[in-house]
Every structure is written in C-alpha cells, then in structure tokens.
Amino acid sequence: MKPAARGSPPSFDAWNAGLGAAASAIGARGFPDALAAALRLLTPFQMMNGFLYSPAGRAFDLYNEKIVAERSIIVDRYLAGAYVLDPFYDAVRGDAAERMIVMRELAPDDFLHTEYYRRHYATTEIGDEIGFVLKLENSFAGVLSLSRTGAAPLFAEDELARLRSAAPIVCALAARHWFHVPGLSLDIKDATPAARIEHPLLTRRELEIVTLVLKGHSNLSLAAVLSLSPNTVKVHRRQIYSKLAISSQAELFRLFLN
Prior knowledge:
Layout: H1 12-24, H2 31-39, E1 47-53, E2 59-63, H3 71-80, H4 87-94, E3 100-102, H5 103-106, H6 115-122, E4 126-135, E5 141-149, H7 157-178, H8 186-191, H9 204-215, H10 219-226, H11 230-244, H12 249-257
Antiparallel strand pairs: 1-2, 1-5, 3-4, 4-5
Helix pairs in contact: 1-2, 2-7, 10-11
C-alpha cells in the first residue's frame, strides 16, 4: 500500500480567497478550475472529474473536460455500463445526501482484484479517490471526484478530515454551478435506461451473485450479504461459470460489460 500523503492546511485568508474565486465563477467556464485551485489549498491531487446519475440509475458525463489521454477508459467505458460496478454509484443510489465519500471506505473486500479495478483504476493509475455528492435538479445526483494518480500517495487522515470539513461549502458551490445539468435535455434524461446485468441462462439469484462478484465481493462477503453459507456461494459460482462456459472473472466481465 502506498504511504499516506502529508499536506499542510492552508491559511484562513488563502482558503477564503480561494472559495471567493470559486463562488464568483459559478455559472462560468472557469468555475471548475477555480474550485480545483481552492481544493488544492487543502491537499494536492492530480485529477478532478465528475459523473451524474439519474433517478432511474443511468450515468452521464458531468465534468470530464480535462481528461484526454485516458478518456476512453475513464469516461467512455464507464458511461457504456461499467458505472454499475462503481462503489460511488452504489453509495449515491443508496443515499443522495450531500457529503464526502471515500472510495477505499466503500469498496467491497475483493475490489482490488476485480476486472473493473484492473481496467479502470490500475490501467489509469488512479491510486486513491474521494468524491463530493451533489444534489441536482429533478432528483439527479452528481459525484465530483478528486483522484491521486501514479506515484502519488494515499490521502492522509488529516487531509481527509480537512476535505470532510470543507464538504458542505464545496457541495453547495458545485451543486449551484451544475444544478441545471447542462447539455442534457429532459427527454434524454427520462428515456435513457440504466445498464443492467442480465442473462437468459441465469436465475435471479445467480444474476445477483454475478453482480456482487463483479463489484468485488469475495465468497465470504457474498455469504454475508446474501445470508448464505460460503459453501452455497461456491456452488452457485461453479454453476454460473458452467452455465456460461467460462472459467475466470475476466471472461465474466467481458460477457456482461465489455
């Protein structure tokens, strides 16, 4: 595991100036940069981006303008359906209250060994991620993420504490800026269905297990979530792989979410 970072807290004057600049830029193209500059006074990070989730469970692009080189992975594949495996997606679907969330606090126990993690995080070298949950129009929710990439260390506990303390004002400013969900018409929002994990050969219980496996739950975690014995979970997984004529999670991922 990477060592935690050690940033220092900003001066009160610098933080106020940063917030003032962000507030003044609400509704303008310069808002994301102004907000990122203010947040970098609290802690360093390499990437800020965001996604939007409809009440029906569909994901949309909220803010990914700075992502160019890895866009096909971070944005395109995510919006094509991989978002259903994102712990942030599950967190927002379960509770859209404005707050800060931390990926490593939400991820299932086997998340680091999933095909989703390998393709989305390992490939893009995202090592740590936090998110600010935003309440937007028509019951949409957004998550604005800050990520550490490459050799950058994990967010330290004192940095997470500063970000949590800042969450109310950060969420308020970001929600005001993105509240009207620019670029999406109401008919698109309402008509676009959410991605689903389904297969005609599998039972509802087996599809539930497939979903949890792809999200990163180990057999023990599956057993706890589904109130089954670990042996029963193993039997279900063998039956699933046999029905689908596959032998690995990579094949399972490709079958449902390639």
